Every structure is written in structure tokens, then in C-alpha cells.
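Practice set, problem 2.
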Amino acid sequence: MAAKFEYTAPVNPEAPDDSLEAKTPYIDHGTGRVDAERYYSKEWMDREWEQLWTKAWLIAGPRCDLEEPGDYFTFEIGRESIIVTLNDDNELRAFYNVCPHRGNRLVLNESGSTPRFTCAFHSWCFDLDGHCERITDEETFRPGAIPARPKLKTVHVEEKGGLIFINMDENAPPLAERFGLPDGYLEGYQLDKMKVVRHVVSEWGANWKTGVDAFYEVYHLHAVHPQTSTVMDDYGTQIDVYPHGFSRMIVPLAKKSPREDDQASVDPGLAYMLSEAGMDPEAYSGDAVTVRQDIQQFKRRRADELGLGWDKLVDGQLTDSWATGVFPNVQIGLHPEGAFLMRFMPHPTDPERFYYDTITLYRPVDDESWKVPDWMGLPEGTDVSGDVRAEREFVPFGVQPDLGLVLDQDSELLPVVQKGIRSRGFEGPLWSEQELRLRHFHAELDLYMDGKK
């Protein structure tokens, strides 16, 4: 099988060159190893803070979390907390979550709505544009102590495709200069019409890059997640890399892995996929080869009937997972029914721990027959109406996060991998072309670490 593998093979060979589904040109990142020290060194971690996290555009959250002026949420990254809000003109604003008077955190909760930000320490008030509205007992400050009413210190903030990005670098280039995905890539999924139905943050015993590496490839599926082999074509996954460290995998679903001996029958896995899409597997007359295409056509007809506006999506997007990497620390599993946004957040002090921050976005549909996709792994009883934003669940270190079988398998594996990386017997990763996204990610990371970005 290995001799037949072509890393340039597209999922859809007939996709036009200007299609978002088309295979991107290959980028050769060589065959060398990176130093294992980057996965556990405290010194490397400290350099990352200065060279990467405070200079790169970071996804702070989905735009749907801010609906009205005064709505806000906080974005925690390393030692910083950022307030993201809408001002009275419905414009995005972002500030360091700190009062300029004495350094108190202005906002202590994760989200809310307020006409102004009031410091709980001395009651200084700031409007939604960061201007200081009130200084308690201002007359007691000597002239010169407050030469001008101090504003909240701003952070660059922009929106793209239904997601909010922030950048702490005062000289940050516009997001468009660092956004590697083609125009319309995110917009077709209509993330702005989705709602947060689950938000879980769990602490894992590994470096954040160990997490990125694991989720940026499907090479491990046959070994770690063998239950997926009848419904996911891991070996035929299309791998694409884009500018500025962005990348994606198109993982064909409702299609068997070639590692499966039986390539013809509609086994329980494919029958399940038919049922989940709303089709009757008992009445299905096709075989394993036709399942994926027939599900696409069924979903297309149904979306048209419900007026969901999926006309900008190619057929492959109706079944497949477009697992999209947004540099430096995000992967989004994109589907028309919803999206799974996973952020690999660095621990503020320990290079061998990270926070796996997962947001499940779902597009509510006003139709009783519409079913929430099981890939979302939502617990029974989850409110998917979109009327109430799901509260953030925090799972402490050492506790199983209960994110579904596949992700729980990953949470058990990564701490073991991290320990192995620490071994004197490990000299750095050996990456295949199925792991091209990892090479691409680390090549971009090195540009930041070397001060070239």
C-alpha cells in the first residue's frame, strides 16, 4: 500500500483550480527533524510568549458570542486576560483586562453585558470604547498625577468569517496580511448563524504543540481510533498547506478506509452514517462505494427545501470534515451543520501542560426532523435551541474530560507521548508526508521564534 501512496492526490480530482476543494501546490519543507526541546523547555516556552503569543493573530472566540452593544467575553492567554466587547455603535473593541489605576482585573467573570466597565477596587468607570468616565474623588489627586484621564489599553481586534481575532502587538499587521486561507473559505459555512451549544476547557498533561501535532494528522487513526476505519478514509485524506502556517485536511466521511478488507458492504458503520443523515439504511439499495455520494445528494436536497443556503458549499463539504488549521494554535472541524473549534492554549507556567479549549458551534434549524449530528458528541439533554449560550465547563487536570470516545482516547494518549518526548532516546520527530501539516506548522513557528515575523 505504501508504494501507491501519493501525498498530492486530491479527494476530488475533478475540482476546478479555482475551487476551494482543489488541491494546493505542494510545499517542500524538507525531511529534517526539529529539536525535541521545544516540547518541554521552560526557556523555549518563555521565548514563545515574547516571540509568538504576543505577536500572532489569535482566535479569541466566535462572533455569535457578542450580539448587542455591551456584550463582552474575556479571552485568557498565558499571563494576560483580554476583554472583547461591542461598543454602542456595534463595533468590536478589545482591551487588556486591567484597570490603569492599580492593576486590578476589571472583569472577573467569563462573559456578560454591561453599559460600562467599573473597577471593583475603587469604582473607576470606563465606557465601551475604553475612555475613563469617572475617577472616584478625582479632586484628591495632585495636579500632574493624572495628566490625562487614562484609557484602557487597547488590543487589535478584527472579525473574519464569523470568528474574532486579537493581536497584542502594537505594530501588528492587518489580519488580512497574516490570514492564510483563501477568500470565502470560512464564509461559506455561515459560522455567524451558528450558536455555541457546548464549551469545555480541560487541562492535559502535554505541551500545546504535542496537542497540535496529534490533531493535525490522521496517520494515527488506524492505531488509536480503529473504530473510525469503516466511516473515515484516513489514507485518502487530502492534505493542503497555505501561507502563514495555515493548513487543512479534507477527511472523506461515509467512506471506508482502504485499510478495511471489506470495501463493498454497507456495514453497521456506514448504515449509521446513512441514518444520521436522515436516510433509511434498511431501504438503501446502494453499496459502500455509493454511500458518500448519496448522502451528499440527500443533504443537498434537504438543505434546499429548508432554505439553508448551502449553495456556496461543494458536495464534498456536505459529508467530509474540512479540518482546518489556523496558525498558531487552532483547528476547526468544519461542517455545514456546525463546527468544532479546538484551541490548544499554553499553560501560563508549565511547558508540559496545556488547556484543550473546545467550542461546539451548531446551526439551529426550525424543523422537527432535523437532527444534531452525533459527531458533535453532545451530552443527552444539551440545549441546542441557540436561545442560551452554553456555559463554559472546566475539567481539572487528571479528570477525564468526557468529550466522546475519540477525544477521550486522545486525552489518554497525549500525556504518554509527552513523557516519551522527554526521553534521552528520542531525538526529535520523524515525519511522513501524511504529516506534512506538522512540518508546515513548525516551519512557521520557527519564523516567529527567529524574529522573522
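Problem 2, part (b): a different protein.
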Amino acid sequence: MASEPAGKYDLNTELAAERTMLAWLRTGLALMGFGFVVSKFGLFLRKLAELRDVHMKISADQSLSVWIGVALVLLGVLVNIIASARFLKTVSHLRRGESPKAPKWQPSVLVALVMSIIGIGIAVYLINIR
């Protein structure tokens, strides 16, 4: 299979970039959905305790779960914005016949680090409500 000459537009490459963007959009939507669940988790625990007449050590102020949830939702929004911007930049390069430049940092690594930090925060929160 002969390689394409440099500078020639390739629809398959653009479609691959679009699939990558769509995968990132799914990741962003999943983060937003998870953020919503986390933000409502404290309220769920409090209502469950009321229904079962159980006295659990749950603070009346559930702001930590709300803030963690908000952070996840905002991370999802940020992932979607970055994915869209990177896709538009990549397609712009491809249509001009240029090779897209490799990013200076990998968003997947950044998302993994932020999710690890949020995961530690959730673990600490769950330990403290026990």
C-alpha cells in the first residue's frame, strides 16, 4: 500500500479525528452524569436515614458532595470544550494539507489526574460519614 504524498487531504484521517472527538464527548458526558450523582449522594443518604429512622453520622451540611459533583460536571464541560477545540484545529490543519501538531500535553493524563484527586476526596468523604 503506497503512502499518501505529504499535503494531500485524506477524508479517512478527518473521520478518525471526528471519532476521537466523539469518544472525548462521551467521556465528558459521563463525567457530567457522574458529577450529578455525586452531588445528590449526600441528599440521598440523609433521606434514606430519615426513611429508615436510622441515626447516621451525616452532617446536615452536604456541601462536600455538592462541590465534588460540581467539580466533576465542570470537568466534563471542560473536556467537551477541549475536545471540540482540538477537533476544529486538527481539521483545519488537515484541510490546509498540513500535518496536525502533537499536543504539548495529553488531556487524557490531565483527566486521569483530576479524577484521581476527586476519587481520593470521595473516599475521604465516605470514610468520614461512616
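Answer key, part (b): The chain has one domain: 11-128. The radius of gyration is 21 Å.
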